[in-house]
Write a structure and sequence with these properties.
Layout lengths: L15 E4 H4 E6 L9 E2 L3 E4 L4 E2 L2 E2 L6 E2 L1 H6 L10 E4 L7 E3 L8 E2 L2 E7 L5 H7 L3 H9 L18 E4 L2 H39 L5
Parallel strand pairs: 4-10
Antiparallel strand pairs: 1-12, 2-11, 3-7, 4-7, 5-6, 8-9, 8-11
């Protein structure tokens, strides 16, 4: 049992420690192997470790797969609210599958699907970003040059769980913070571009 130092009003109960195998029915690997023969210019978006960083899914680098390969992975399709974790390289980074990526296929990620209990996935997603969780993941990581963890390593991984209402409040709080951070980052980029443009055009160029 544990209690956080900062709480939202109305929550006083201790948090429980639970193994992930007590929370999820399915903890396993997405497709592991060579997928490049199935890459196409336009097709089904294929979720890879490059797309998972700091609790979010980015589409900076997009890979697409053909219909045949996509359908072969039907039993491993990800659904809204499922969670994925990077297992090689920048191990331990996680993200929650949003509604627009429902029925997605993935490559070389650990998947957490079909919760056994009521759980707010974004609550767990933010917990994995804490120093405490990162240290625990580091302790089960193998490899010198390229770090690696196994799906089986996560069965007994312990997380702190509050009641569902507190989970949802905490998740919403951090989701709003992330939204504000993204807005400000865009504004910063716009100001940088404006500065660059003005520098190039307000100082005379050599003839």
């Amino acid at each position: 049992m544990m209690k956080p130092k900062i709480r939202f009003n109305g929550f006083t109960d201790d948090w429980e420690q639970r193994k992930l195998e007590e929370i999820y029915q399915n903890i396993g690997n997405a497709f592991v192997g060579t997928a490049t023969p199935y890459y196409v210019d336009t097709g089904h978006f294929y979720l890879e470790s490059n797309n998972i960083k700091d609790g979010q899914i980015n589409r900076n680098n997009e890979v697409f797969i053909n219909d045949e390969f996509y359908e072969r992975q039907k039993d491993k399709w990800l659904h809204t609210g499922d969670m994925v974790m990077v297992q090689s390289g920048h191990v331990g980074h996680t993200a929650v599958i949003p509604e627009e990526l429902d029925n997605s296929a993935a490559h070389a990620l650990i998947m957490f699907r079909n919760p056994k209990i009521e759980i707010e996935p974004y609550f767990l997603n933010y917990q994995y970003q804490t120093i405490k969780s990162k240290r625990k993941i580091n302790n089960i990581t193998t490899g010198n040059t390229i770090k690696h963890i196994l799906a089986s390593d996560m069965y007994n991984f312990i997380v702190d769980v509050s009641d569902i209402e507190e989970q949802q409040q905490i998740a919403n709080y951090f989701l709003e913070l992330d939204h504000l951070i993204t807005l400000h980052q865009r504004k910063v980029e716009q100001m940088k571009n404006l500065k660059k443009y003005m520098l190039q055009n307000m100082f005379p160029a050599e003839k």
